[in-house]
């Protein structure tokens, strides 16, 4: 099934929902690159972001408001899972761990995801609000990361940015559809954005690791202007204001998380931990 029949979808065939389609990026399979400790930590940040939000999106399969949204959100989740696999594979090579080791055998304080990605799905409007923020951030990040001095990160970014561009378009179309729809859909969209906006600022904080990776990592603060310039016109078209209010203290990059991550990991890791070494 393609995504072309959904409002605002990309015109290209976005593919079928198949686990087999989630493959490691060719540059990892063929190159065998091993990251330095700092580059591995940076790849872990990005991989954890993608892994956590992919896990969250899987919940919507069979629960979305439309059948085609089951497919769309499933495909977006698979794209993000593919990004996570590539990034965690690269991160793990430095310590001799696989992407599965990193996904299933770390506890909450060892994860480096930003708080936005671990926020609950909530209702459909909440999930769209989270996707709207995440996709715009990831698009700006991967656009810049293509110029990284680390060839593996640059190659992962070049592949990922094309997929995230579709995710961005999908979220924009739903923001407009919900905000300009019924009174109830608009109320839910406003609530979703208000609830998630406190977690935006953490995405653009420059941690000390970034200073050590000049020319390799993307400086988060450098992305904020482009992010705002992309977000604000969409909100204006949807007749929505940029949310105001408290700003979350963050801490995800240092392993300090909300209670939400524990529930996500419990669901994601239970099978692997109940049957160590099993394969199917």
UniProtKB/TrEMBL annotation:
Pfam families: PaaA_PaaC (PF05138)
GO BP, sorted A to Z: phenylacetate catabolic process
Leader sequence residues: none
UniProt-listed InterPro entries: Aromatic_CoA_ox/epox (IPR052703), Ferritin-like (IPR012347), Ferritin-like_SF (IPR009078), PaaA_PaaC (IPR007814), PaaC (IPR011882)
A Gene Ontology term for the protein's cellular component: cytosol
Database matches in NCBIfam families: PA_CoA_Oxy3
Protein name: Phenylacetate-CoA oxygenase subunit PaaI
Lineage, broadest ranks: Bacteria, Bacillati, Actinomycetota, Actinomycetes, Micrococcales
């Amino acid at each position: 099934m393609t995504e072309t029949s959904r409002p605002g979808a990309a015109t290209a065939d976005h593919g079928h929902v198949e686990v087999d389609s989630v493959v490691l990026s060719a540059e990892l399979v063929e190159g065998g690159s091993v990251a330095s400790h700092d580059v591995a930590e940076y790849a872990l940040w990005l991989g954890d972001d993608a892994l956590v939000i992919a896990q969250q999106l899987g919940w919507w399969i069979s629960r979305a408001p439309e059948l085609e949204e089951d497919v769309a959100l499933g495909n977006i989740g698979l794209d993000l899972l593919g990004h996570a696999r590539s990034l965690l594979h690269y991160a793990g090579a430095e310590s001799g761990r696989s992407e599965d080791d990193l996904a299933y055998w770390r506890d909450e304080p060892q994860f480096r995801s930003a708080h936005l990605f671990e926020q609950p799905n909530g209702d459909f409007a909440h999930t769209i609000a989270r996707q709207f923020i995440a996709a715009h951030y990831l698009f700006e990040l991967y656009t810049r990361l293509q110029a990284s001095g680390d060839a593996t990160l640059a190659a992962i970014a070049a592949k990922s940015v094309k997929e995230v561009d579709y995710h961005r378009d999908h979220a924009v179309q739903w923001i407009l559809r919900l905000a300009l729809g019924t009174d109830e859909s608009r109320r839910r969209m406003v609530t979703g954005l208000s609830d998630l906006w406190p977690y935006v600022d953490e995405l653009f904080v420059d941690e000390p690791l970034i200073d050590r990776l000049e020319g390799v990592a993307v400086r988060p603060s450098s992305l904020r202007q482009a992010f705002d310039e992309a977000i604000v016109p969409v909100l204006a078209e949807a007749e929505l204001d940029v949310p105001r209010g408290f700003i979350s203290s963050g801490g995800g990059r240092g392993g300090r998380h909300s209670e939400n991550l524990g529930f996500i990991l419990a669901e994601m890791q239970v099978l692997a931990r109940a049957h160590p070494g099993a394969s199917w």
